[in-house]
Amino acid sequence: MENQKEMNVSEQIARQWLKERGVKVEDIAELVLYLQKKYFPDMTLEDCIESVNAVLSKREVQNAILTGIQLDILAEKGMLDEPLQSTIAVDESLYGIDEIMALSIVNVYGSIGFTNYGYIDKQKPGILAKLNDHSDGTCNTFLDDIVGAIAAAAASRHAHRAAHVQP
Ligand SMILES: [Ca+2]
What we know:
mainly alpha; 70% helix; PgpA-like_sf; phosphatidylglycerophosphatase activity; Put_PGPase; YutG/PgpA domain-containing protein
């Protein structure tokens, strides 16, 4: 019971932080639709929202969201020690830990997630383009990968489920 309660708080805060960082569930659902619409033309935004919500209910996903956003915020405020402060604040391309952390989300629904994640990370549609625009001084070094990974995992979840209902 205590454990259950703790999990709920974690999901609640993870959702709240995503929202505060400018990412709505609908924004992530749009990425899922972008990934899946050519395979499932009948898929609706509502289906995608349902899948994103299922991904957000996973504890390992919440942990990645909380850790990543926390580091982004601390870097934005200049509160990390060097060399990490500069590395994260300028989103140094050789750092790579942001992508590694995102893989813990991608893994949740198996290996299709990797393909989806790689694809969406290259294309950067919708909210991902916004998160990669550093012109307003915000640091989204971890958040862009986390959002792409949630979308990739939600797309994999949908593909797995569709494979089970279709003959
Ligand atoms: Ca990144």
